[in-house]
Amino acid sequence: MFLGRKFLHSPVGKIEISGCETGLHEIQLPKTNLPADAAVGGGGTLPAPLQQCTAWLHAYFCEPALTAALPLPAFHHPLLQQASFTGQVLWTLLREVKFGEAVSYKQLAALAGNSRAARAVGGAMRSNPIPIIIPCHRVIRSSGESGNYGGGRLLKEWLLSHERLQKAQVARRGAPAPPLNSPDTDGAAGRSPGAPAVREPASSR
Ligand SMILES: [Zn+2]
C-alpha cells in the first residue's frame, strides 16, 4: 500500500498529514505555535486523499469560503469506520457544526443522540484523528470558555477567532451576490449548492 506523508505550512505552524490511496489517516497539529520557517517535504506524488487534504487546508486558512465547494478527502482510520459512539460523535460534528459555529460538549452529545454523554464527547474529541477538518475546535465549554484542545488552548482560540473574522468578512461583502431578478435566493447565502440545510446547533437546547 502506498503511504504518503506531507508537512504543510500554515499560519499556525507545521501541520503533518498522512494517509494512503484509500483515505486520509491523520492530521497532526503543530507541537508548538511557533511560526514555521523551513520548507519541508512536499515533493513527489501524493495519494489523492492527501492532495485533497492539502487543497482543503490551504483554502481553510486562506479563503475559507471555498472549502464548502471542495471535496473532503476520504478518511481511512478505524475510529471513523467502526460503529461506535466516538465515531458517531465525530461524524455528527463534521456534518452539523459548520464554519464559524460552536457547540458545547453537551449540545454535541445531544446531536449525536445521547444528551447525557458529554463526558464521552470529550473523550471523542481527544481521539479525533482528523482535527481541523473534523472541527473539534468548535466544541467548547457551556460557560463559553474554549476548553481543552489537542493542539493547545491557544491554537483552539486562534482557529475560533479565524473563523469568526472570516465569517464576518464574508457577511460584510454580502457574498455571494445573488443574480438580479432572482426572487428566490434569499436564505441560501453562504450555503454551498447542494449542501444540506443544517439546524443551528446553538439553538437546539
Ligand atoms: Zn490507509
From TrEMBL:
Main location as per UniProt: nucleus
Ranges that cross the membrane: none
Cofactor(s) this protein cannot do without: Zn(2+)
Keyword terms of this UniProt record: DNA damage, DNA repair, DNA-binding, Metal-binding, Methyltransferase, Nucleus, Phosphoprotein, Transferase, Zinc
Gene3D superfamilies: Methylated DNA-protein cysteine methyltransferase domain, Winged helix-like DNA-binding domain superfamily/Winged helix DNA-binding domain
SUPFAM superfamilies: Methylated DNA-protein cysteine methyltransferase domain, Methylated DNA-protein cysteine methyltransferase, C-terminal domain
Residue ranges of the region described as Disordered: 169-205
Catalyzed reactions: a 4-O-methyl-thymidine in DNA + L-cysteinyl-[protein] = a thymidine in DNA + S-methyl-L-cysteinyl-[protein]; a 6-O-methyl-2'-deoxyguanosine in DNA + L-cysteinyl-[protein] = S-methyl-L-cysteinyl-[protein] + a 2'-deoxyguanosine in DNA
Its EC number(s): 2.1.1.63
Annotated compartments: Nucleus
Pfam family, one: Methyltransf_1N
DNA damage as UniProt keyword: yes
GO cellular component, one term: nucleoplasm
Family annotation (InterPro entries): MethylDNA_cys_MeTrfase_AS (IPR001497), MethylDNA_cys_MeTrfase_DNA-bd (IPR014048), MethylDNA_cys_MeTrfase_DNAb (IPR036217), MethylG_MeTrfase_N (IPR008332), MGMT_N_sf (IPR036631), WH-like_DNA-bd_sf (IPR036388)
All residue ranges annotated as the Methylated-DNA-[protein]-cysteine S-methyltransferase DNA binding domain in the record: 90-164
GO biological process: DNA repair; methylation
PROSITE patterns associated with the record: MGMT
Domain Methylguanine DNA methyltransferase ribonuclease-like: 7-73
Molecular function in Gene Ontology: DNA binding; metal ion binding; methylated-DNA-[protein]-cysteine S-methyltransferase activity
Source domain of life: Eukaryota
Phosphoprotein recorded as keyword: yes
Task of the protein: Involved in the cellular defense against the biological effects of O6-methylguanine (O6-MeG) and O4-methylthymine (O4-MeT) in DNA. Repairs the methylated nucleobase in DNA by stoichiometrically transferring the methyl group to a cysteine residue in the enzyme. This is a suicide reaction: the enzyme is irreversibly inactivated.
The family this protein is said to belong to: Belongs to the MGMT family.
Protein name: Methylated-DNA--protein-cysteine methyltransferase
Species the sequence originates in: Apteryx owenii (Little spotted kiwi)
